[in-house]
Amino acid sequence: MATGIPPQVNAPQARAAKVLRHGKLWLVPGVLSALVALVLSLLYMGGILTPQDDLHRMPIALVDSDAGPPLPGRTAPLGAELTDAVAAGTPPGQVQWRRLSRAQAEEQLASGKVYGALVVPEDFTRSVGALTTGQATARPVLLALTNPGTGSLASSLASQITQLAAYKSSVALGKQLTAAAPDAPATARLLLADPVDVQVQQGHPIARHTGLGLSAFYYTLLLVLAGFLSANLVHNGVDGALGYADSEIGPWHSRRPTLPITRTQTLVVKMAMTAGLSAVTTTMIMLATVGILGMDAPHLPLLWVFSFCACVAVGLGTQAINAAFGSLGQLVAMFVFIALALPSSGATIPLQAAPSFYRFLGTFEPMRQVVGGVRSILYFDARADAGLTRAWLMILLGFAVALVFGFAMTRYYDRKGLHRMVPTPS
């Protein structure tokens, strides 16, 4: 006699050991997990292991302010000779020495266009000349200026380059001075052998509560993660609410009746919710970082607007990818916005010290564009030429690409009749 109970209810319950013996169960997650681990390891570690070896045209200012007069037997102040030797003594392609005036160097330091500067002061030749006459009151000085707003590692690399160049110049100059004064006392010869005092100073100081120039990176990471995670929460929540996915919270499981709706209209709902919730996540990020933790952040209204637009751009891009790739969309979006973006952001390792593959990714990866705008607002007085203009343009491009790609894919699926409709359980 029929009991009215579906036959599968009376079927024997499967045991975990039996399920685990099926090789096909392991195949897809095993292959994907291995590939993801391999690719992530190559991406992250490949971008940081050898920054000194990967240096490519790192921009550093080279300033000759030496006003002379020339030493006896010379036709020009020592500054010109020294800067020529510095530029010629660097391995080709590693450093882009920019010969600038002191004012131009300060301008480019203040806009983040150079990572540091080597400065020959006005009285350099005069101070060197005093050494040879015994009238010196202080050692000649070369200034190595840092730019912490470009990131602690970038500024440190530039500082190492400028200090090494200054030291080599001091040794070369010392050989000339020692040869010119063969009868000098031993103590004087010791001073003449390495005559230059290299002083390290901040060329463009930043505020104290900035994590030594890393606050821009971590703030950007928060924006990207907030946009990515919020979009995925909306994606899963909307699918559950419309009856296209099960909803499980702990032991509680539910499945709503399926609502007939096209893929395009579903994407409209998800993108609208993502944009609306971005205002909330942006406010919470600023409340936590600026309000509670005290991060130094000038231009607060501009920072909020920029942060909101960045969150929206990432969120809409994530929704477009989810709509195009389905269940694989979250993995694809993770690679686009996080896995590929982090090592190519130029925020921790400058792109000039990264392999060429990462420099290529940095031309379009979202995190690179956002970190440039955040740095400009936090460290460089929101100057347009410090990366803010490019950041706004790339965010606008991100909006356009997300909308065009997302709706082009959903409309194609809808026209092909590839609907998401599934029978609602009775």
UniProtKB/TrEMBL annotation:
Signal peptide: none annotated. The chain crosses the membrane at residues 26-49, 216-234, 272-295, 302-325, 331-351, 391-413. It is found in: Cell membrane. It comes from Kitasatospora cineracea. One of its GO terms (cellular component) is plasma membrane. This is YhgE/Pip-like protein. Keywords: Cell membrane, Membrane, Transmembrane, Transmembrane helix. Its main location: membrane. Pfam families: DUF3533. It is a multi-pass membrane protein. Belongs to the ABC-2 integral membrane protein family. InterPro entries: DUF3533 (IPR022703), T7SS_ABC-Transporter (IPR051328). The lineage of its organism: Bacteria, Bacillati, Actinomycetota, Actinomycetes, Kitasatosporales. Residues 34-396 form the DUF3533 domain.
